[in-house]
Amino acid sequence: FLARELHDGVAQTLATMLLELESFRRDQYGREGALAQIDVLEQSTRSALADLRALLVELRGRQRQEQDLVLLLRRGMLERQQRKRRMAFHLDVAQGWPEQMDPAVADHLYRIACEALDNAIQHGAPNNVEVALTTDHDTAAMTISDDGTGIKSRQDSPLRPGFGLVGMRERAEILGGTVSVRPRDQGSGTIVQVIVPMDRLRIERTS
Q: Judging by DSSP bridges, how do beta strands 139-146 and 190-197 pair with one another?
């Protein structure tokens, strides 16, 4: 209900504002100061609309108690691709990755991925961002890597709290797993990896 109300109300209002600003721009031909202000307003409105659409994606995923992490990640990456068109986003899913999992587990992993993706976009300015889902015997791994500017601090130094590592670690610990953040082995960039027990991904069935 909330997602629908936001889409039909706020999102439609922002979209209408963009159309009105474009119409107003045509009336300001030759007025450089007014045109510059319109550019700022358009940029702010587009940014607010993009953020709202990202929130709607998350709300709808939560409302459905999504069991498919791959689908959640594709939606989230597509939304970020639309906002950051110069960046390329890739998703690699290995054979053996479960098509469905416990919804709470999918939500925790998705939010870890979102935190890592947003940090890469905001602080690393990468050209490419990749999410890889793999399994190895009794463990499952989600790896987010980018070719951005990389981690400022040394690999063995604690990252600043604003990086969001604390929140990612808390979510991983709930799943009985761990999170590591390190520079890429080759070139610049960062790798965020969460490893969890494979059995935590399975859907709990009640008799």
A: antiparallel
